Amino acid sequence: MSEKVFNAAELAKYNGQNGQPAYIAVDQTVYDVSDKAAWAGGKHHGNLAGQELTHIIDGQSPHGRRVLKDLPVVGIYQA
After folding, report:
1. Which of 14, 42, 67, 70 is spaced 20 to 30 Å from 61 by Cα?
2. Could you list the pLDDT tens digit for every one of the 79 residues in the chain?
3. Widest CA span of the chain, in angstroms?
4. Contact 34/50 with Cβ under 8 angstroms?
5. pTM score
6. Are 23 and 14 in contact (CB under 8 A)?
7. What string of H, E and C letters represents the secondary structure of the chain?
8. Is 51 within 8 Å of 17 (Cβ atoms)?
9. Taking the CB of residue 26, how many other CB atoms lie within 10 A of it?
């Protein structure tokens, strides 16, 4: 089975609001952060779900990419 492909408009639908799951993209991989309490309501330290956040994870996050290892992968991101 092929992976779901997300573009910016498709990813934006998964913002954790109004019952939608919360997805983020990092380095062309889309992760589901819905079950993480830190992402409640689709928000985490000023960052919003439904977006490509590679620059945040790599440049501003104190924990970096290691937090991604346990998240479910739901697809690939192509801008």
Report:
1. 14
2. 468 999 999 999 999 999 999 999 999 999 999 999 999 999 998 899 999 999 998 888 878 888 899 999 999 999 8
3. 35
4. no
5. 0.91
6. yes
7. CCCEEECHHHHHCCECCCCCCEEEEECCEEEECCCCHHHHHHEECCEECCEECHHHHHHCCCCHHHHHCCCCEEEEECC
8. no
9. 20
